[in-house]
Amino acid sequence: MGKLVYSMITSLDGYAEAAEGDLGSGAEVEEVHTFIGDLFRPVRTFLYGRRMYESMVFWETAHSLPDAPPHIVQYARDWQAADKVVYSTTLESVASERTRIERTFDPDAVRRLKDETDHDLSVDGPNLAAQAIAAGLVDEYHLFVTTSVVGGGKRFFPDGVRLDLELVDQRAFDSGLIHAHYRAR
């Protein structure tokens, strides 16, 4: 049985998407990117909303960029090897291999997917993750906390949901970014 993992870069005040601007720096350095690549290599299925998929589809061709460093090439190859499910009512087609579109998020279908696989799955994007969290599907959380306070936007954790989490691991990077890994109790 696979675990469903939710991970996002988040501001110090808990926003996975800033209302204005970006979430700050720290995640783009090689040390952090390599850590994220190693951490998510076991994930073989990514669940995306349309906007998150449109930002991640970059990895379909990132390996072919001139002078792409090895950690970028490795992440691109890992992403390309994984299955992708995009939940969207508006997306007409996909621009990556191993990708399918679902028109609605069905918690029971995701539960079956988790039960029937021997690898981990990832849900990405605060809107889609909020649905998975509300349905009790998320097993682990990885927060990559920047040093910025952004004052508003879309929260990492949705409003109205209470969770009791266990801290599994934490790591601080030289860039100031902090990784916190939690498991649902």
Question: How would you describe this protein?
Answer:
The chain has 185 residues and is of the alpha/beta class. The protein has a single domain, classed as Dihydrofolate Reductase, subunit A (3-Layer(aba) Sandwich). It is 26% helix and 30% strand. It is built from five helices and ten strands; from the N terminus they run E-E-H-E-H-H-E-E-H-E-H-E-E-E-E. It has helices at 30-40, 50-56, 70-81, 107-116, 126-134; strands at residues 4-10, 15-18, 43-49, 83-87, 99-102, 120-124, 140-145, 153-155, 165-172, 178-184. Strands 5-4-3-6-1-7-10-9 form an eight-stranded mixed sheet, sandwiched between helices. Strands 2-8 form a two-stranded antiparallel sheet. Helix 1 runs parallel beside helix 3 (70-81). The longest helix is centred in the middle third of the chain and has 12 residues, at 70-81. The chain is globular, with a radius of gyration of 16 Å. The protein starts with a strand and ends with a strand.
